[in-house]
Amino acid sequence: QVQFVESGGGLVQPGGSLKLSCAASGGVFSVYDIKWYRQTPGQQRELVATITRSGGTNYAGSVKGRFTISRDNVKKTVYLQMNSLKDEDTATYYCYAQTPYGQSRSTWGQGTQVTVAS
Q1: Cα–Cα dist 90/25, whole Å
Q2: Mean pLDDT within 20-49
Q3: Engineered SS bond to 92: which of 2, 41, 46, 111, CB 3.0-4.6 Å?
Q4: Are 5 and 110 spatial neighbours (Cβ–Cβ below 8 Å)?
Q5: What SS3 state is found at 24?
Q6: CA of 36: how far to CAs of 21, 74, 85, 118, in Å?
Q7: Long-range contacts: 51-59, Cβ < 8 Å, 24+?
Q8: Cα angle at 104 between 113 and 75, to 5 degrees?
Q9: CA 11, CA 30: separation in Å to the nearest integer?
Q10: Nearest Cα to Cα of residue 82 among 109, 58, 96, 64
Q11: Which of 112, 84, 68 is nearest to 16 (CA)?
């Protein structure tokens, strides 16, 4: 099991940038795929970005070209660089660890709030 602490969120204007961090403890971090999800009240969590244990990445169509996911296995930290932010990106962002076959290897943390507004 991996436990995450998400940080880096805040209030940013449309078109601005934020870099989120997700610090992990426990588990064998380096062998898991790590995903960033986001959620707004009344909605299901949306998969935003994935980084595999080998460093491959995938993104939701709504963020492709604007967001970049990365990982540092020494620091046990996952990052989400968010550029050209839009109002629609407003949400609470969470990390989650899975095996390459989709098996859960973490619980949901507190998340970090991102608010994009003028």
Answers
A1: 27
A2: 95
A3: 111
A4: yes
A5: strand
A6: 10, 19, 16, 25
A7: 51/78, 52/100, 53/100
A8: 60
A9: 31
A10: 64
A11: 84
Distance of alpha carbon 90 from alpha carbon 86, whole angstroms: 8
Asked if residues 60 and 70 have their Cβ atoms less than 8 Å apart, the reply is no
Residue 40 DSSP SS3: coil
Contact (CB, 8 A) for 32 and 97: yes
What is the CB neighbour count within 10 angstroms for residue 114? Answer: 21
Q: What percentage of the chain reaches a pLDDT higher than 70?
A: 100
| 84-99 pLDDT tens trace | 999 999 999 999 999 9
The β-bridge partners of 24 are: 4
